[in-house]
């Protein structure tokens, strides 16, 4: 598994192959949940503390989901018309909703900001407009996260430790990215 190389290209066939490889790397933590996560090889996730799961399972899964969103927006029908790829993508997006995109414990808002920072590397606004109804749980979760981001930026939402100026600044920066994203690709 460590020998999988993703080629950097605009070639749609290579991009499609890379997307399939990415989906194949994911697996269910709880069989039957319909959620597939990127799990590092040889990880004993059953005994992994929840803060480590955020760092080593959820954040990489968000990164993979953002990559696949980019692929879907570029490949369009080539992506959508591949049932295995589409189903895997749907399960990965569902996995992204498991923690409502938040961090662990007192770092839940930091984790949410980190998750949105990852998702905003993709054309997420255009994706939601074009495909949001296909993935209702993910769409709802992401929109709620954006609302929370506005609350952080405005000072009405903060951690139990109080307001963090650094987090407020990051939230404002991410809102600017969100607002400046194109609605089409």
Concise structural overview:
With 185 residues, the chain is mainly α. The chain is built from eight helices and two strands. The chain has a two-stranded antiparallel sheet with strand order 1-2.
Description of the structure:
By secondary structure, this protein is an all-alpha fold. The protein has one domain. The chain has eight helices and two strands; from the N terminus they run αββααααααα. It has a two-stranded antiparallel sheet with strand order 1-2. α5 runs parallel beside α8 and α7 packs across α8. The two termini are about 30 Å apart.
Q: Note the beta-strand portion.
A: under 5%
Q: Main beta sheet, described?
A: 2 strands, antiparallel
Overall spatial form: globular
Structural class, judged by helices and strands?
mainly alpha
Q: Give the helix tally.
A: 8
Q: State the low-pLDDT regions, or none.
A: 1-7
Q: How confident is the prediction overall: mean pLDDT? A: 89
Strand order of the largest sheet: 1-2
Number of domains: 1
End-to-end separation: 32 Å
Question: In which range does the helix fraction lie?
Answer: 55-70%
**Beta strand count:** 2
Rg from C-alpha positions? 17 Å
- The string of secondary-structure elements, in order, is HEEHHHHHHH
């Amino acid at each position: 598994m460590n020998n999988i190389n993703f080629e950097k290209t605009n070639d749609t066939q290579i991009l499609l192959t890379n997307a399939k490889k990415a989906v194949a790397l994911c697996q269910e933590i709880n069989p039957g949940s319909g959620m597939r996560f990127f799990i590092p090889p040889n990880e004993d996730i059953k005994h992994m503390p929840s803060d480590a799961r955020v760092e080593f399972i959820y954040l990489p899964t968000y990164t993979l989901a953002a990559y696949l969103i980019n692929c879907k927006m570029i490949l369009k029908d080539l992506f959508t018309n591949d049932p295995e790829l589409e189903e895997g993508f749907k399960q990965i997006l569902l996995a992204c909703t498991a923690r409502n995109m938040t961090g662990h414990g007192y770092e839940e808002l930091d984790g949410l900001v980190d998750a949105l920072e990852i998702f905003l590397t993709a054309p997420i606004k255009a994706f939601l407009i074009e495909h949001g109804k296909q993935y209702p749980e993910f769409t709802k979760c992401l929109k709620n996260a954006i609302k929370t981001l506005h609350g952080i930026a405005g000072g009405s939402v903060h951690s139990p430790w109080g307001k963090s100026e650094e987090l407020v600044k990051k939230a404002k920066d991410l809102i600017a990215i969100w607002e400046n994203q194109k609605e089409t690709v």
